[in-house]
Write a structure and sequence with these properties.
Length: 301
């Protein structure tokens, strides 16, 4: 049978962290790197999956019973159970999705980077199973869904979800100061579930969500120069720091930086940070941070 191929993109949440879970507007960029999926329907056997990382090494394999959707054999029980849960959710949404198939995936970024190995899977599986990706997310993982939106976006987006209502607005974001925008990997993978659990300990107020939404809109529309961009990001950092009860990443790790700002992206405590100022590049290398990228190298905008 014909192979169906999908390429879904990774994501970076520039503004709206945490609050996007509760209806605040988020501003996000899809990444050039994503994950490729090759589905081939085959009614003669069970569901077989093979996942390859960006270095070409197989990091996951599994065989899933086509009737019960339970893992029969696998290289990782945890990953297999998660995949099985998604398949069960997809079949619940589309009972005709009951046939066996083989799936091969190729990840284009380091799994530790937190760019969306799960969201790219959900977006691709939703297309193959002919189901709504946000409904599949709700049954399988939970979350706001901004990463699902990025998976198929062609450029920057503003995202908002209130209940079941999803709004995805393309943004013509073309900063003149793009050469000043860089990313640094903080050498640790963030556990999003733990970060969200910490955020949930205190209920969000309407004021917090409204302020976060205003900042996402301003950052994506009104930051016409680097000074205004930095000013708005710092305002967001301080707002989130107060809400989370956590010191900003700039004060935690980069208080002695030579210039510019550092801001967390998405869940605080790991993955990537955005920074401005080219003088920070040798400063970061001296501190042992080896993964430093230009924002325009990784993201689509």
């Amino acid at each position: 049978m014909a192979i169906k191929e999908y390429h879904t993109k990774g994501k970076l949440l520039i503004s709206g962290a945490y609050g996007v879970l509760d209806g605040a507007i988020g501003f996000a960029l899809p990444t050039k790197l994503g994950q490729r999926f090759y589905f081939e329907a085959d009614t003669s056997k069970n569901i077989e999956c093979k996942a390859v990382d960006y270095t070409g090494n197989t990091w996951f394999e599994a065989e899933i019973d086509v009737k019960s959707l339970a893992p029969l054999k696998t290289s990782s029980e945890e990953v297999a159970n998660t995949f099985s849960k998604l398949l069960i959710a997809a079949r619940r949404l589309n009972p005709d999705f009951d046939h066996s198939f083989t799936l091969e995936t190729t990840l284009e970024f380091d799994r530790e980077w937190g760019l969306g190995s799960s969201s790219t899977l959900i977006a691709a599986l939703a297309q193959f199973a002919s189901v709504n990706a946000y409904e599949l997310l709700d049954l399988g993982f939970k979350g706001s869904g901004y990463d699902i939106a990025c998976a198929t976006a062609e450029g920057p987006i503003r995202f908002q979800r209130i209940g079941k209502e999803v709004s995805v607005t393309p943004v013509n974001w073309r900063p003149t100061f793009t050469d000043e925008l860089h990313l640094v990997y903080l050498n640790q993978k963030m556990n999003s579930r733990e970060a969200i659990a910490h955020y949930r300990k205190a209920q969000s107020s309407d004021h917090f969500l409204n302020e976060l939404s205003k900042l996402s809109t301003a950052i994506s529309e009104e930051a016409l120069d680097i000074n205004r961009f930095e000013e708005l990001l710092l305002e967001q950092e301080n707002l989130l720091s107060s809400r989370l009860g956590i010191t900003t990443i700039a004060d935690q790790l980069f208080a002695d930086r030579p210039e510019g700002i550092f801001t967390s992206l998405g869940a605080w405590g790991g993955d990537f940070a955005l920074f401005t100022g080219k003088k920070n590049i040798p400063y970061l290398k001296d501190k042992g941070y080896s993964t430093i990228l230009k924002l325009k190298e990784l993201c689509i905008y």
